[in-house]
């Protein structure tokens, strides 16, 4: 009887692996997880830890191992884990949904612990990997990562209140991703809020871009450098914040909706990169004009709003640095992270699961 039970578990386990397009296998090699440049430990909350350990308890019999290995590898050939279709009235159907949104297979409804463990593992890994990739891109967005007090210092104009509101909302959504993902109604409402944040970000980019261009043009005509030079850099800060809000709200919407369709991801990457490039070219044009204004300015007539003399050479050096950065054709660290993260959503990913329930992933581009 035990052999029949074990055989049944193995058959369902193998069927689920094939239908769900994933693989779990013992790993016999040695990996130095202390090397932070190559491996990253994924943060797990209590519920996720329970799901991981539940799967671990089922693996020895399912893979017919004679002893518990120190580590397993979990492989998803097409990127982020597939998830089982959740029903509106609770529970799950027998359909397994692939990254293209189509049914990839059907799971048996036999009430076996192994099946429930795999289902819980899928759900947990989907959130864990989303959290991991969001962290990778968030650390590159320096402007939006500042404290709210720092952000308030450079915001100005009619858009100040709405931009501050959306930045605060996006920070909240990012920080509470793991929790909100487990509450369906709150998750849906959050997606709607993120779509609104993205619209506000685009409007604010245009507002601050026009303000920067108008300020530089006013300096060219009236030579009131001292009173306007600081405003140019304030506009630049607001522009960068708005663009980073646009990037973060777009990515958060993708991970909250768990829409990993290849065409959708390609559209997101193309749209973000194109929009950022166009915006940076407009910024470059304005600061190149500012460069010309500073070159032609009479240093003896350059005074600030309080009547104090301004160091022309220092201003030129500051402006030259901005122009050099904007002229750089190479991918920025943020662009590289964006590309790697979006590609990871549709390409083979591999995770390492230790026998104490810890999960590790290779660092992007390692």
List the helices and strands and how they pair.
Elements: H1 2-20, E1 23-26, E2 39-41, H2 46-62, E3 71-76, E4 83-86, E5 92-97, E6 103-106, H3 113-138, H4 148-154, H5 160-175, H6 177-180, H7 184-222, H8 225-257, H9 262-296, H10 312-327, H11 333-344, E7 349-354, E8 359-362
Antiparallel strand pairs: 1-3, 2-8, 3-7, 4-5, 5-6, 7-8
Descriptive report:
With 366 residues, the protein is of the alpha+beta class. Helix content is 61%, strand content 10%. The protein is built from eleven helices and eight strands. The protein has helices at residues 2-20, 46-62, 113-138, 148-154, 160-175, 177-180, 184-222, 225-257, 262-296, 312-327, 333-344; strands at residues 23-26, 39-41, 71-76, 83-86, 92-97, 103-106, 349-354, 359-362. The strands form two sheets. The protein has a five-stranded antiparallel sheet, with no helix packed on it. Helix 3 runs antiparallel to helix 11 (333-344). The protein is elongated, with a radius of gyration of 26 Å. It starts with a helix and ends with a strand. The model is unreliable at 64-68, 82-94 and 106-112 (pLDDT under 50).
Tell me the number of helical segments per DSSP (H or I, 4 or more residues long). Answer: 11
The beta-strand count equals 8
Query: What separation lies between the terminal Cα atoms?
Result: 48 Å
- What is the mean predicted local confidence, pLDDT? 80
Largest sheet: 5 strands, antiparallel
In short:
This protein has helices at 2-20, 46-62, 113-138, 148-154, 160-175, 177-180, 184-222, 225-257, 262-296, 312-327, 333-344; strands at residues 23-26, 39-41, 71-76, 83-86, 92-97, 103-106, 349-354, 359-362. It is α+β, with helices and mostly antiparallel strands. Residues 64-68, 82-94 and 106-112 have low confidence and may be disordered.
